[in-house]
Amino acid sequence: MEIWAEHPARADVEAVVRRYFDLLKAGRIPEAGRLVDHTPVRHVLNALWRGSVGAGADEDGTDRALAPGQGEQDVSWLGELHLADFHWGDGDSGVYVETTYRAQVIEVSLSFWIKPTDSGWVLSGPATLW
User: Which residues, in sequence order, are CB contacts of 30 under 8 Å at separation 6+?
Assistant: First the structure.
């Protein structure tokens, strides 16, 4: 996990967010999870899936949620996801980043916040915003 002695600059945080996303796309899920102060990333994968591949439910209302373990085993669908614009909150304490699927912004954004710990400043998240 990245730990900064002082409140990190925007560029430093954005670099960690990009690395986190790159690790997810490469299927390196455990490594991505260790990069930030966060619980397991399964909900992140599920939200990204539902906001992209599974966005359009079948006409019969079929749920297109990931089957258990599906998102970790076959990450090929992540190849069409990309980070878009970063949006910073007041005081640079948090940022959310839009995501795109097939060059279209999707409804799911990833939210990260910077928090102090006894060891220094860490990046926490992501939460998924709809």
Answer: none
Token digits for 31? Answer: 């490594």
| Look-up of token digits 């980043």 | 97
Residue 40 burial (C-beta neighbours within 10 Å; 0-12, 13-18, 19+):
exposed
Among the listed residues 5, 16, 27, the one whose alpha carbon sits nearest the alpha carbon of residue 81: 27
Distances (CA, A) of 57 to 70, 102, 116: 18, 17, 41
> Is residue 60 over pLDDT 60?
no
Give CA angle at 24 (41, 75), nearest 5°.
100
The pTM for the full model equals 0.87
Task: Give the SS3 label for residue 57.
Answer: coil
